Amino acid sequence: MRLHSxxxxxxxxxxxxxxxxxxxxxPASAKSTSDSDGTSKVTLKVKDVVSKKGTFQVKKWVTFKxxxxxxxxxxxxxxxxxxxxxxxxxxxxxxxxxxxxxRSPQTIGEYHLGAGGTITFDLPKTKGLQKDGLxxxxxGSGKCKVSATVSVSQKGDxxxxxxxYYKSYTLSTTYRNQTTPKVTFSAPSKVKKNKSFKVSxxxxxxxxxxxxxxxxxxxxTKVAIQFQKKGKGAWKTIKIAKVGKSGKFxxxxxxxxxxxxxxxxxxxxxxxxxxxxxxxxxxx
Length: 284
Known about the structure:
23 strands; 6-stranded mixed beta sheet
């Protein structure tokens, strides 16, 4: 088997680096993007991050999937494999601090051989809040992005003097830096069938900028009022409320049968999805 000449004698050429800073984590969902030209295809996938004051990490935070050209024969009949490598960094979106560390389970900066594969990089275990002298370093919240370049070798034949070359695919996708809110909820235990009744509650969340102290959710934060018929089966959203002053929300709803009711803070760039405790509710 013959390797491309650029690979021979090269130990570590390209590394993946995503800044320095406070690593936090706990994924909720993921976004992805891909690029293809018919001979190669690359996909970048990044999970959302949920930060807190304690220590934790995100496994397989960034994932790259690469489809490279298949092995081929040179003019002398030798098998030549494709080569590919990844370089990436995190950036800024909406003015949010996006400094994240990344740790690869593989050797940093290595080339990969063959017709493609999947590699992942972890967000390492670390503290969500650290003190540097008199300063507290915190993790921001909001939307950030990861940009990456995946370079894939294209066919060449060194025996005929035809050089191989690398074709680069540039990808970028966003992820959300969130904290987990707390949702309190109040509802009557007995109501009349198909008659409106009031439910209310409050949404709070730790603020990274204030050393993860609890703060009221922002005005306009959406809260889904959900009902579970007879306390079994799937939850159904029956009303969407919005947080007003002091993190509080209230609205009126109707039900046709007994069951359970709860409030669920909806996912945003700043908050992860979180449900309140369910309340049993009966008909009079």
